[in-house]
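Why does residue order matter? Because the sequence determines the fold. Keep that principle in mind as you read this record.
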Amino acid sequence: PAKRAHMPPKRAAGSSSKDSVATSKKFRSAIDKGVDEFLCPITQELPVDPVMAKDGHVYERSAIKQWLERSDKSPVTNLKMGSELLDATQVRSMLETMVKSGAISGDKADKWQERLKAEEMAAEWRRLAEAGDAEAMCNLGGKYAHGDGVPQDDTQAKMWRKRAAHRGNVRGLTNYGSTLGGNGDIWLHWMEAAMRGDAFACVLVARLYERGVFGQIAKDKELAKRWYLKALACKEKEEGDGEEPDEEDKAEASAWLDANADVAAPWFDAPDRQVA
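Structure:
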């Protein structure tokens, strides 16, 4: 009789899907281990602005710069190393691609996702600012001041805030004044912005009167109270004037007014707060 052809044993039902799951887990494990190699040794997070130090390791730029300001040794090897930092462009490109594709997700990708959103927002504000939008100029200046979505750059921050101020944006005027450092004009810009109804400027002016400025502004609690009260009363207006207080402004003004409830300001033309 003819022999039956030998047939390979049938695979158990579901074995193919189990193999796929196992392979997927291996790939995920390999990706995670590979990505861990790029964790900044200082922050233990994936660097959003990676640089290569002289010890051959990749760091978050801000973290290694702060480290090198107080030490001439590597955070990893504890051996002396130079302070030169090189942009790790390929590392950044790789991490960005992996985050966008979803290969890196969860906690490891959180800072990168925030960075990508910040860069998109900065790009939109730049587009609007270059088209003449004063509020966008002010916001873009803030981005440069804090290195949020763009490289930190005090010169760019000052330039965009100045342009916003010249366009009539009251918060731009406040922030431009803040870039003048020890220049005596700083409080003049704050004063103008405060009189135009910027709550943050009102808080800054109140601080000046609360503490005094040697040779320029004498301490005066009545004037400090006036400006803290005005900060709480500010409302947003059209054409760039007026900015309402944010939560920090409200908290600072309210705390000072509560602590100085006995200070009189009878000539202030807005009603005083009712202090419990």
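Residues 269-276 have pLDDT under 50 and may be disordered.
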